[in-house]
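Incident log, structure service

09:12 report received: a user says their structure output differs between two submissions of the same chain.
09:20 pulled the input from the user's history:
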Amino acid sequence: MGYESSVEILSEWDIVTARQQGRNIAKELGFGTVDQTRITTAISELARNIYLYAGKGEIHFESVSALEKRGLKVIALDHGPGIQNIRRAMEDGYSTSGGLGAGLSGVKRLMDEFDLTSTLGKGTTIQVVKWLRGRFG
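09:34 re-ran on a clean worker, output below:
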């Protein structure tokens, strides 16, 4: 059941599309309502960051499994300016857009795994995973 789908982020409407697609995939994978909301919120933040800071990019979705776990991996990818100070960008309350600053640190708290790679002038890739709770055969 390897989902391989993506949403190109070019406008604010694409953020909504990415949220809806991510929620639908999470639901099909068996995530409960609370985790669906966590995943959707994380996708919204990642897509919004692409739109605000890079102008365009993509959100990719894939089902993942490890040992006896299954989950959803979300990859946010852009070729924008990159993040100048990653440690500062990960601080609670930090925002360069005048927003609430829940951004990346909030995404990290909502998901089970978080990996950020950014190169100035080349772009940013953020991979997050949410694992289903319980055992699967």
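09:41 both user submissions now match this output. Likely a transient worker issue. Closing.
09:42 reviewer note: The radius of gyration is 14 Å. The mean pLDDT is 89.
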